[in-house]
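Aim 2, interim progress. The first record below pairs a target sequence with its structure tokens.
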Amino acid sequence: MKWPIVKFGELYSEDSRNGLTKPSKIRGEGYKMVNMGELFSNDYIYDIPMELVPLTDKEKQNAKLRVGDLLFARQSLVLEGAGKCSIVMDVSPITVFESHIIRVRLNKKANPLFYFYYFNSSLSPIRSIVNQCAQAGIRASDLKNLNVIHPPLDVQNKIVEILSKYDNLLFVSKKQINILEEVIQRLYKEWFVKLHFPGYKNTMINDGVPYKWFFKPIKDICVRINAGGTPSRKKRNYWEDPTVKWFKTGELQDCFVFESDEMISIDGLNGSSAKLFPENTILMAIYASPTLGRLGILTSEAACNQAALCLLSNEEIVSWQWLYLKLYELRDEFNAIAKGAGQQNISANVVKSKEVLIPSKKIMDDFTALVKPIFKKRKILQNQIILLVEARDRLLTKLMNGEISV
């Protein structure tokens, strides 16, 4: 079944609006403001921690967000990010949005969740209005004139009801992952930051270091540590018939990584500085904010680009679980070094030479035994989420194009 086509602007309850410009020097107090970071990190905008900004009475009125508002990325450093759509679900009474975001508020002929799903489906027409200059972006005028499908409202509501069941399952799984992450981080900080590890009260301390603990540079606790590489895109055989997973830093989200957005061929691997690393290798983004310091854990053999550092732990000294948590702990320090040097990246040599305090083998083994099943559970949940998203997206496309009746 083919649905009627209308101009997106015909579904607006009021004109779309760009957000507020607030210089960094005045931020820190006031009211919550949705920035690009929140938009790209969250499909659903809830009352999460955000930057605070002062507001005038007029700004409170004009830029205030309501439940059901659609937010579109007006600009993006990368082509894929332009036009990214999120939906406001539940926010503080006065929450506003920044100038790189377009707010769309729909009328009673449209279910906002339906159009959120639509713009996040393979049927989304948003690519047709993306302009590529210094940055990729969309214009509010083009968004208003965009042709979109418009099923009857009762059909929209039924489609939303079906897809929401998948999203509820996804929400539960993500909440479980967040709880597991909190448990892991709390255990790590208790044992290795506060040094309240089992038996610490009876452990001898020498110059602030527990007995049998020692300092080593990160390079000495890894059997391999190398930056990745990008095969030349001018050589077709490097990208044709790809069989090797190849990750970019944008795919690192402080969790396990499964399938890469792109793959390369064996020729591409052998003909470039890319290197193959095994399962449980830690990938760390060393170039460019906001990804600088983000981590990923390989779930299978793979390579990565030059913006990531691959660290394979020496399991005789430290577990990969401990190394992951140590690198997570060091992120703020590495970011401070990068900013202090006036650049948007951190040298691989800085990471390699960073000295860290290594616990005794018994403490390392005991900690690893404690967190290993938690990491395993998290990995299972992440894989379940991937499968749920795949199933939901297949169904979404069929529902949106009328292939499945509701």
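The second target in this work package is listed in the same format:
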Amino acid sequence: MVTALIFAGGTGQRMNSRAKPKQFLEMHGKPIIIYTLEHFEAHEEVDNIVIVCLKEWISELRRLLKRYAITKVTMIVPGGDTGHMSIYNGLEAMKVSAKEDDIVLIHDGVRPLITAELISSNIEAVKQYGNAITVESARESVVQSVDGKTIDAVPHRDEMYTAKAPQSFRYGRILELYERSYADGKAFIDSAHLCGSYGEPMHMVQSTKNNMKITTPADFYIYRALYEALENQQIFGL
């Protein structure tokens, strides 16, 4: 069984959108969360989808799922106060049906420019290595600073990568790590950070192009431009 765990519990404070959370903002009349879900809905290897959503927006999400014929969603779970807790809530809720060896792809609801190829690469890597962290090569030099004032190290750029999504795992193992972090009272930025903190070996999968997360107003406009460019390629063969 392959499950896509989509977390869409953010309030979008950096987006400066008071009316709607960022995942419900529309582009060409369709919410961002639907663009994201459609990739997993269409993928033949994905069996079902679990969504972690802001509690007060669950009814609206159900309406959208029906409107856009998203049929693979088997569960909608209320989100937590942080992204970490939202993922934890989703994994805990999956206990009712998921098995330890099942594959779970953890993905941002506001990362809609993924591809079927990337989903397939994640699934295959989990089958071979036990997990898959989608990454992108660093485009600029990365510096390390402990105090935020002075630079302590400048790692070689060709050894640096940015963690993206999906981040994919065997269900039993990632659940175990999230439950361990909950017991320890720790929260992490993403699943890769969680695994790194507990010494879990990780396998990299190279991201496809433009796999961006929509967080700020500028991200939204970049996404719109990229989407329209991709659309033009299909229509006009550009």
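Residues 64 and 193 are 32 Å apart (CA to CA). This observation will shape the mutagenesis plan for the next reporting period.
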